[in-house]
Design brief:
Helix content of chain A: 40-55%
Shape of chain A: elongated
CATH class of the largest domain in chain A: Alpha Beta
Largest interface: A-B, 64 and 64 residues
Structural class of chain A: alpha/beta
Largest sheet of chain A: 6 strands, mixed
CATH superfamily of the largest domain in chain A: MoaB/Mog-like domain
Oligomer: homodimer
């Protein structure tokens, strides 16, 4: 089992990704981010390994540094936030700096914005039209909600920060990304303590190196429980480890909780 | 106003911090982190500037690198997660590697755990007692809920991942941190578009460089609104900019929403 998976890894290595969440409001505690979990779930179900996320302020030097470090280390980088019309929306400027390219008005983006504003009797002032500036060589990412596009340059995808716009943009680029073997998970929730499970879990992880086995303490209907989760791409191994986890819990005198 | 604040900045520079959220479950989409917002809010109200957050997997090389980069760049680093008894709990090992020190059993941590387990008739097996391993020179951080302590070494504070334990640990170390001038905020929510507000906001930000002015589009009772937020330590400037923001909204024909 392990040998065949290793072979598969060598020939079709799963693509890797990093996410950069940009915005002072995420570091001040004002805003609870919900974009990461959306992106993380979609990447997992499409076999793309999310290796790191950085949450950084609206600070050009910091954004440029993070974009350059992470785009060199990963197959894909996704940024959220900072593409609106106001003075703190600096993501397009940062990306053009990071890639060393100009930031001209993109004629298609300009047309999209002008049409959107005209339909709604909104003045296409200078600040609104800043949203048509796209780093040279960038391809537009459609914004079906408020027209101002995201964009893709190199392996970097620049998305909105507003969750429903970000989600629409992300869904529209997903088909264009290279996929890896789908990462699936099985879980067994039980009423044993992590300390009781630790030694057999360590032994199980050693026997299933192709899977990522984790244990997560939490509450289940108000009572303390531990959820054992195995993640990976090897369906046969997943199904075997699920049976082993159930037997393990039973052998230690624990009960398995059924998902609600 | 600006001159006096600059002087203050030079003599009592606000301390800076970084947060490292450790755990595969945060990058797989399984778990929505809520620890960052708790820490971010408390840091802000105590005048400590949170400059960056990284979310990274249970991978020793990655954790060691992040800890070393961020502890050298900031006054404080807070980590969450990875201090339980199971094989994926590697944070103490990573911190001892990052600092180049041993990871012995800490006698006080050992006593705390033994007492906790004895009281509850829990077997103090080898995995549970791993939680008493503390990097040499580390000081314990009390865990009033499940005994297994966090620890502080150098400028790094290692906290649990379970939110209520993390919160208790964070609250217990907060009094020992150096504080900066308290960062406060004022906000004005209105029914104008960001594109309408952008030019006057840019001008306001230029006149109030000591404040951080942001605009955040969102829904307010289901209708699209923009919240204008000014953050900073200069109370007089905050109160002035709040008045200016209200006048600005009125002058542009907008309505101000009262907080619910």
């Amino acid at each position: 089992m392990k040998t065949s998976l290793s072979t598969q890894d060598n020939t079709t290595r799963a693509p890797t990704a990093a996410v950069i969440l940009i915005g002072n409001e995420l570091l001040s505690g004002r805003t609870q981010d919900i974009n990461l979990q959306y992106i993380a779930n979609k990447l997992a179900t499409h076999g793309i390994t999310l290796r790191e996320t950085r949450i950084i302020p609206d600070d050009e030097a910091v954004v440029v540094e993070a974009v350059n470090v992470l785009r060199n280390a990963n197959d894909y980088v996704f940024t959220t936030g900072g593409i609106g019309p106001t003075h703190d929306d600096i993501t397009a400027d940062c990306i053009s700096s990071a890639f060393g390219v100009a930031l001209p008005i993109h004629p298609v983006a300009e047309q999209l914005l002008l049409a959107f504003f005209q339909e709604r009797d909104i003045e296409p002032n200078e600040d609104r039209m800043r949203m048509a500036r796209i780093p040279e060589g960038g391809k537009l990412i459609d914004n079906p909600i408020s027209a101002a596009p995201g964009f893709n340059i190199g392996n970097v995808f620049v998305l909105a920060g507003v969750p429903r716009i970000m989600q629409a943009m992300f869904d529209s680029i997903l088909p264009s990304l290279r996929k890896g073997p789908v990462i699936q998970s099985v879980s067994v929730t039980c009423n044993l303590g992590e300390g009781t499970l630790a030694a057999p879990l360590r032994e199980l992880q050693a026997r299933y190196p192709m899977l990522d086995l984790g244990s997560y303490p939490g509450k289940f209907d108000g009572a303390p429980r531990v959820m054992l989760v195995a993640r990976g791409t090897d369906i046969d191994a997943m199904s075997q480890i699920e049976e082993e986890l159930k037997k393990l819990v039973a052998s230690l005198g624990g009960d398995i909780e059924q998902p609600a």
